[in-house]
Amino acid sequence: MKSYLFILLCCFSTGLFAQNIPDSTANADIIIENVTFKSAGVMLEGTIFKPKQAFAALVLVHGSGQEIRMEKMASLLAKKGIAVLTYDKRGVGKSGGIYAGPEVGSNNIDSANLNLLALDASAATDLLLTHLTAKNLPVGLMGFSQAGWIIPLAAKKNYHINFMVLFSGPVVNTLEQLRFQFYTDGKRNFWETHTETEAREHVSKDPDRYQFAPTDPRDALATLQSKGLWLFGGQDIQIPVGLSIEHLNVLKAKGKPYEYRLFQPLGHNTVTDETIQFAVQWIKTIANAKKRK
């Protein structure tokens, strides 16, 4: 079991998504405030970055790993006009609770842990709302990798969440994800030697190495009205992008307000200047539409 959990950490750590973010320092137009909030019986600690003229607000949701608050990303988004709450993950940094993950020999993608992390994201959203001066701002969640399972669960729990932005978020269940990840085996040249058809066949037929109840984000996504944006990399070897896009297209055909953008040269780390700007502009369209109502 430990080797399997170690693979999850390497491939789904939020730290992977910080590498391309430029250094960002606070300025006089951004108010920074450390905050605490309670979720599922424990106190979590974080920081709010609030521009004086915000057009939207969001909570940052971690991928896997022992992740503290994402201040660099929060500061960057605040400079672009978005109020952001980022917090230390449960059991990490200054936040209370018990961390689940490979370092402590536990399964970080079982349904209990994913639902607990979704409760944390929902509680963070409620706190952020109390700190917004303008009450008509669209409020959302932005997350990375493993957050593809957490964010839909959180949005289902909290009707205040208007939108979701997911960088490399899987739209397959957790067991399918493992099948794909074991198949690619971290090989950077995987797509040079394998086809999409071969990958899909493996995901659909390969026996599961571990037995636990899977979490499928489509269960929550099928019930939501929140707008969603997924940003994928065409060379991703951690999540099955082609299958995820197919599942999103099925949901879109049923009237769900979901969009995606494929950046063919990118791998699993889809956080770049281009993708961040694309996400910010997408959020602006939601804010503008909300103003016209």
UniProtKB/TrEMBL annotation:
Keywords from the named record: Hydrolase, Signal
Entry keyword annotation includes GTP-binding: no
Domain spans labelled Serine aminopeptidase S33: 54-177
Cross-referenced InterPro entries: AB_hydrolase_Est10, AB_hydrolase_fold, Hydrolase_4
Secretion signal span: 1-18
GO terms of molecular function: carboxylic ester hydrolase activity
Keyword Signal: yes
Residue runs in coiled coils: none
PANTHER family for the chain: ESTERASE ESTD (PTHR43265)
The protein's name in its UniProt record: Alpha/beta fold hydrolase
UniProt source species: Pedobacter roseus
High-level lineage: Bacteria, Pseudomonadati, Bacteroidota, Sphingobacteriia, Sphingobacteriales
